[in-house]
Amino acid sequence: xxxxxxxxxxxxxxxxxxxxxxxxxxxxxxxxxxxxxxxxxxxxxxxxxxxxxxxxxxxxxxxxxxxxxxxxxxxxxxxxxxxxxxxxxxxxxxxxxxxxxxxxxxxxxxxxxxxxxxxxxxxxxxxxxxxxxxxxxxxxxxxxxxxxxxxxxxxxxxxxxxxxxxxxxxxxxxxxxxxxxxxxxxxxxxxxxxxxxxxxxxxxxxxxxxxxxxxxxxxxxxxxxxxxxxxxxxxxxxxxxxxxxxxxxxxxxxxxxxxxxxxxxxxxxxxxxxxxxxxxxxxxxxxxxxxxxxxxxxxxxxxxxxxxxxxxxxxxxxxxxxxxxxxxxxxxxxxxxxxxxxxxxxxxxxxxxxxxxxxxxxxxxxxxxxxxxxxxxxxxxxxxxxxxxxxxxxxxxxxxxxxxxxxxxxxxxxxxxxxxxxxxxxxxxxxxxxxxxxxxxxxxxxxxxxxxxxxxxxxxxxxxxxxxxxxxxxxxxxxxxxxxxxxxxxxxxxxxxxxxxxxxxxxxxxxxxxxxxxxxxxxxxxxxxxxxxxxxxxxxxxxxxxxxxxxxxxxxxxxxxxxxxxxxxxxxxxxxxxxxxxxxxxxxxxxxxxxxxxxxxxxxxxxxxxxxxxxxxxxxxxxxxxxxxxxxxxxxxxxxxxxxxxxxxxxxxxxxxxxxxxxxxxxxxxxxxxxxxxxxxxxxxxxxxxxxxxx
Length: 695
Ligand code: SF4
Prior knowledge:
The chain is of the alpha/beta class. Helix 3 packs parallel to helix 19. The mean pLDDT is 94. Iron/sulfur cluster binds at residues 10, 12-13, 15-17, 40, 44-45, 47-48, 173-175.
């Protein structure tokens, strides 16, 4: 590492790999994996390796713009502050909303949350992380009493069995998958993949269970019932640390494993492996979360680990991996509409009072705000009159995307902070605010195993672009609010760390108050650390010896009944539509599409269909297919493949109105959500398919 090299963190997924950045003085970078970062130890995937190709000036927004006219910061910020204040004065605090992003740094996220919840006095701040892992948050809270991830990445190298369920880790968290492959080589770790689709993660797996879409609760209920039948419940752990086990086991026994569509032989192989291997890690991701029963799916997995005491010890536990680089940080700062900062509860009066006192805030909401899908429904109905979108593109990525785009275009006042104006959402904005991009801003992010890492600015922001915390604080000050006078991210971090100490005093899990007095120099050189910091939680582990956060100190097992997805295939819409990520693209491609080698991997949108279905529809390879749902249509190129089962379709999620106007996939997806988490069911829509043009 030379003097000109700076440590930072990759912005593309929740693995949170460390990178070494060396600027060339001409606005470009060299990027290498950081050999000392505990997430990757020098490894990078294709996206991380191509980071240097995505930092140029192409399509950058460089000056504020109001109603289509470039302007200066003072004019733009005054206009935003005045319009938000006027809207709140006329229609109340719940008439405004922020829609933020797991791409934001924790310091930026903290400021947005403080402004909305503590000063505007509404909880109408939600995030695109609602689409990513909110079912896990809800499942953790139901089981543990807080949103605590028990596992760490070292567990992957110390497990004897790894189960990936609803997770194409090989493409979506590639460096973690590399770590698993290395463990398989050195230790002989077994790998089971549970996914309706055959993905890259299945290559070389010991078992692939192609279960029926949405039947995860039935599968893990069956596992729990089998653990009980074999007499292998950990009664000592349950008696000491778990409530609800009897009811959960009774419900599991009452549920029908045939719902999964799996053969008795495959089920037995899975049960033998899972039950017979003490050191088992069950990794889950969007295939579990993005479901109308996502929270139940999460709890079905947690039930099995709690019933066997396989939690909180090296090499075992349930492990949710987050999609976005700072989805976890967003959870920590309370960036979801139903959370308070630092894992405190919005609906707990003591917690509210403590945070309000700390912030010296004039107003605090006492109930949850609108979750993402409901927020944009309210926007379309005129109940939200002013919206600020930060680093997100909901007009493409939310379900029923055409309606969302219409709602954005029809809203009285929309502000978008982003690095580019070339998004479907920015096109509908009244005010565009130029934000600093990844390599131009400083702060912290938290990855999937609770490791907090620094992101550091190494390039100058172009034009007059500014970091998000500065933009938010300037608007807050112009709205007349105190407490937004920071001059650096380090000051915000100190305030946030101090607040986390209050959370710790309530016995909450998230406490980084060891850093409340960190000086600027130490913040600049801060090494990655995993919370909790306290000596009582040796090794950063939770729950080996109980210590759960419900009032009785116990975890809860839940009695769960499997539910079908909200919409089932029928004669009119016989196909089940699954959506997901590609290996070399990130979200709506605003950055990854700038890299020719990333774009070369799979250069255009497509639909995967089983050859039997394609034959029935008279479709040849590379023909165009039109998919239709009650919400929209999409035209895509056909890929005939047995990777999907007959009746199932898979479509990547990345293309937008900017890059492929006919292929906006979320235009097809119904705005159906999990009743507890509010997470949309993005992987089980029903659609019709036909040749395009019609034959
Ligand atoms: Fe970046 Fe994720 Fe790849 Fe690591 S695995 S290099 S964090 S995209």
